[in-house]
Amino acid sequence: MEFGGYCPLPIRLGGSWSAAQHARAASDLATLTRAVPFAWITITTNGASTPTLIGYNSMPGVGALWAPTLIGVATGHARIAWGAAFSDAYERPEPIRLGHVKATPCSASARIATAFPNSDFASIDVIISNASGTLVDDTVTVRVT
Amino acid sequence: MAIVPTGSPAWVRNSDHTTYGGNTAKTNWHSQGVTNAQTDVGAEAFCRMVEDLSAVVRTAPFAVLTVKCNDSSPAAPTILQINQMTGVTLVSYAGNTPPAGYPSGARNGDGDVTITWSTALSDDYGVSGNINILHADLGVVSGSAALASYQRVDANADGLYEAVRIFNFTSGGSARQNAQFTLTVVTGPG
């Protein structure tokens, strides 16, 4: 039994969607949710002024509408702050805990980019410097998991 | 006639739960829940599945590839392996002779290469989606201190970014010859 007026939910496995196929889909999806990043964000730092958002992908949504708060701290130093929790489309709120961050410089020049989660685990700091270690404003991509 | 899936391929990133048949008001028929967990999938489980799927589709990398620059005898970079939403290669290839559907690689200078995808690719059902790179992540493959950075490239000036230029440096900031790196690419709507 499957979808539709004559075959309503619950879905009865079998026929064109077998229990084995459903099991594979469920297992693969669960696997992906464990390791896929929570968000990707690319920004350009502007000293103590608000950084410029270049692009944003996150599990809740894609685009500037969904982007976190951007804060300029100093030259080459920005803070990215998410809310403490997000709701999915079914309005199930869940807190976030940013466990891993990785920064990559987006520049034609030699740059060192680092990032670290803050103690609230809902915001991160991003630092970008030249090869000598001097902080400079530039563009950086951060992967957040 | 072959079925045409709803929405766009995953790398276009515009799917939500409704793309997969989810609905915030979806219920089981006559509110009759699952009667046998071994054979039935209820509306609650289905809605969780489509919501989680739309979430991971938004942030899953489009491609992860490891590339070797060829600077001693200047040549196109070698793509050692690539895992991409549309397929996985098991053998390396020269960047100037990419297999269909996989990116090309061109050498600009020492440690400086451009990786270029087609403007659009198709999924398993033949649905086409534009390639528009929003983010990239670089991992330096090296036994010594080294740096790498990237820039997006709109090779055909259509407003979408289908290429990434990678710059490899020594720790002192000089171009690094024969560099190897792992590039992760994330696409967005376009």
Characterise the protein shown here:
The complex is a heterodimer of chains A (145) and B (190). Chain A contains one helix and eleven strands, in the order βαββββββββββ. With 145 residues, chain A is mainly β. A four-stranded antiparallel beta sheet of chain A has the order 3-2-11-8, with no helix packed on it. The longest helix of chain A is centred in the N-terminal third of the chain and has 17 residues. The mean pLDDT of chain A is 90. Chain B has 190 residues and is mainly beta. Chain B has one helix and 13 strands. In chain B, strands 2, 3, 4, 5, 10 and 13 form a six-stranded antiparallel beta sheet that branches. A four-stranded antiparallel beta sheet of chain B has the order 6-7-12-11, with no helix packed on it. Chain B has a two-stranded antiparallel sheet with strand order 8-9. The longest helix of chain B is centred in the N-terminal third of the chain and has 17 residues. The radius of gyration of chain B is 21 Å and the shape is elongated. The interface between A and B is large, with 52 and 56 residues. Strand 1 of chain A pairs antiparallel with strand 1 of chain B, so a sheet runs across the interface.
Task: Give the SSE map.
The complex is a heterodimer of chains A (145) and B (190).
Chain A: E1 11-12, H1 19-35, E2 39-46, E3 49-58, E4 69-74, E5 77-81, E6 85-87, E7 93-95, E8 101-106, E9 111-117, E10 123-130, E11 139-144
Antiparallel strand pairs in A: 2-3, 2-11, 4-5, 5-10, 6-7, 8-11, 9-10
Chain B: E1 40-41, H1 43-59, E2 63-70, E3 75-84, E4 87-88, E5 93-94, E6 104-109, E7 112-116, E8 120-122, E9 128-130, E10 133-141, E11 146-153, E12 163-170, E13 180-187
Antiparallel strand pairs in B: 2-3, 2-13, 3-4, 3-5, 6-7, 7-12, 8-9, 10-13, 11-12
